[in-house]
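Handout, section B. The chain below has 177 residues.
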Amino acid sequence: TIVGNLLLMILIKINPHLHTPMYFFLFNMSLIDLCYSSVIIPKMLMNFVSEKNIISYSGCMAQLYFFCVFVNSESLLLSAMAYDQYVAICYPLLYNIKMSSQICSFLVSGVFVMGFAVALAHTGCMLRLSFCSMNQRKVSSVFYTIVIPMLSPIIYSLRNKDVKLAMQKTLRPRMIS
């Protein structure tokens, strides 16, 4: 998860051909995937090693809050990406104006602000219920927190010809020297 998402982020950052709105959103998607798996996996690995499945109530609520931040942000970012595709298809001649770097930055900022706000509401509801479930034996939670972020760079990017070309151009000069 970490290696795949970091490699994609670095590739997008250093390759000027990938400085387009679509890759700007994919960069942020990789960042979100990296962050939300980092919220859950360290504690889960600690529980596997120590065989103690204990977490404090405040630690659980903090983990829940940040997990909700990144999961909600991911959902909202997918909406922003859908809007980007809508503009590209419906307004191809106005695409560069409608999806300027300022608009893209505004959309991503809104995604994170809304992600934090919605997570605050979710966590507030959980605090009111005084409930924290840490059943990590469920396959669905492992799948959602580990497998999906690990596969996201492959699904969203590595099957894309622009990313393959950028990776070849980036790696080729380093291999020759």
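Note. Residues 57-90 form the longest helix (34 residues). Compare this with the example in section A.
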